[in-house]
Amino acid sequence: MNESLEKLLLLSREIGRPDRRLAILGEGNTSTDLGDGTFLVKSSGSSLSNLDKDGVSRVKMEPVLAALDDEALDDRGVKSVLEASRADQSPRLPSVETFMHAVCLTEGGAKWIGHCHAEAVMSVLCSEHGAKPFLGHIFPDAIVVCGRHVAFVPYIDPGLALAREVRRALREFRAAYGVSPKVVLLENHGPVALGASDTEVLNILLMLDKWARVLAGTLAVGAPKFLPSAVSDRIDNRPDEHYRRAQIGRGS
Ligand SMILES: [Zn+2]
């Protein structure tokens, strides 16, 4: 657990670096599955940029997932679930997005999750276009790093309601493409990166950030020129791109 905790702290501080403009103040959260029925997730109110071990909660997976199917839970009930889900003695509550992290770490097939309020990505997600410009590709590296397709959910209340929508989106994505997405875009909110390693999560968020800035630029000078679907499919399936993807994603 100590190695996972150290990596989670480093990943969080990388995402929270002020020059990256991915998150400020208490925005965003990170998590990793410990593989023993518990996971580490950022505590509520702590900041990614200077996260330390006191700002991380170890949480039991089972009660968090069970809450998703409890339609009767109100806001007080949600708080009780978060309090009871703590695997260690800790005065801090896990982030309200703990439910979404649990969903991504199970149904999303990921080992590491990074969620932030990236300024450039939000420029598009908070526009009248929403997630739509991300449904086609405009340059190859975004396909290699962020995946051939991305999932998205319309704006919904953060917390349990959001986690349920993300679960629905992950299931629909798997049914459509046979794999889990590397990116879930939350409209009017921000991106979620799903990775096999801490390195992959950071890579996805950085490439997505660049993709969003290029998209915003193309929208400002006219309109994006999307790659034809067959070209995007070809890049997604090229053996040399598979190799490159494996090298880029190498981390923990
Ligand atoms: Zn958020």
Describe the structure.
With 252 residues, this protein is an alpha+beta fold. It is built from ten helices and seven strands. It has helices at residues 2-16, 61-68, 75-85, 98-106, 119-125, 140-146, 160-177, 198-221, 229-237, 239-249, and strands spanning 29-33, 38-42, 56-60, 112-115, 151-153, 183-186, 190-195. The protein has a seven-stranded mixed β-sheet, with helices on both faces. It is globular and about 50 Å long. The two termini are 13 Å apart. The model has no long low-confidence stretch (mean pLDDT 93). Bound molecules: zinc ion (ZN).
SSE topology:
Elements: H1 2-16, E1 29-33, E2 38-42, E3 56-60, H2 61-68, H3 75-85, H4 98-106, E4 112-115, H5 119-125, H6 140-146, E5 151-153, H7 160-177, E6 183-186, E7 190-195, H8 198-221, H9 229-237, H10 239-249
Parallel strand pairs: 5-6
Antiparallel strand pairs: 1-2, 1-4, 2-3, 4-7, 6-7
This protein binds zinc ion (ZN).
Mean pLDDT: 93
Class of secondary structure makeup: alpha+beta
Give the number of DSSP strands: 7
Give the end-to-end Cα distance, rounded to a whole number of Å: 13 Å
Helix content: 40-55%
List keywords for this structure.
single chain, 252 residues, alpha+beta, seven-stranded mixed sheet, 10 helices, globular, binds zinc ion
